[in-house]
Amino acid sequence: VPGPVFGSKDNFHGLAIFLDTYPNDEATERVFPYISAMVNNGSLTYDHSKDGRWTELAGCTADLRNQNHDTFLAIRYSRGRLTVMTDVEDKNEWKNCIDIAGVQLPTGYFFGASAGTGDLSDNHDIISMKLFQLMVEHPLEDETVDWTKIEPSVSLLKSPKDNVDDPTGNFRSGPLTGWKVFLLLLCALLGIIVCAVVGAVVFQKRQERNKRFY
Predict the structure, then answer these.
(1) Which residue has the higher pLDDT, 123 or 79?
(2) Which among 60, 52, 41, 62 has a CA at the least distance from the CA of 6?
(3) Which of 8, 122, 125, 175 is most deeply buried (CB count within 10 A of its CB)?
């Protein structure tokens, strides 16, 4: 279905892998082109002004524009684990980009591709799409689940809204903000005070012991 999110609809259901070639957020520290992943149950809206940062699960930089050779993207989903790998350097070897566990996607979906542009035009050519069924063993509890009725979701230790700018993506720690620096300094000060009190108590007890000994 055509729409405003890279040529496809917003508030979609399912998994989206975005290959973004242009940064809309001038304050971003990420290097573009940038590949990112997003899972949506229809309730999330893609924010173009922030390049989807608040709903991004993970991502990486990939120099895929204006190459004189073919570039490749491999997307693998098996037993709740989503991995994305790239081969954009014409070295015939895969490079890890995204690796996320806890991804739940229902069956009955379709594969699709779309593209969109703003004031700056760009050209995208998809030479081919190859699909493979993975033969893996599933836990017994998975056999009782009706995978046609589950909602797309991701079990993360960290909320996508906590994601911050990082050229390498994948939920790594971002720069320290003012309140984080304040908390670190406060914790360090409390630690110094505790160590000083403990040291004074130990020193006093040793002094008393030495006096009794002499």
Answers:
(1) 79
(2) 52
(3) 8
Amino acid 88 reads V
Q: What is the reported pTM? A: 0.71
**Are the beta carbons of 9 and 99 closer than 8 angstroms?**
no
Instruction: Give the closest residue to 163 by CA, choosing from 36, 73, 64.
Output: 36
Domain ranges of the chain: 13-154, 177-213
Fold annotation for 13-154:
Jelly Rolls (2.60.120)
Q: In degrees to the nearest 10, what's the CA dihedral of 68, 118, 45, 87?
A: 0
What is residue 152's DSSP assignment? P
Provide the sign of the torsion angle of the four alpha carbons 134, 108, 43, 22, taken in this order.
positive
| Cross-strand partners of 16 | 38
Range 156-183 burial, b when 16+ CB lie within 10 A, else e: beeebeebeebeebbbeeeeeeeeeeee
Other C-beta atoms lying within 10 Å of the C-beta of residue 192 = 10
Q: What is residue 147's predicted lDDT score, i.e. its pLDDT?
A: 86
Closest CA to 24 of 52, 2, 45: 52
What contacts 24+ positions apart, CB below 8 Å, involve 199-204? Answer: none
Q: Contact 127/70 with Cβ under 8 angstroms?
A: yes
Confirm if 112 and 89 have CB atoms less than 8 A apart.
Answer: no
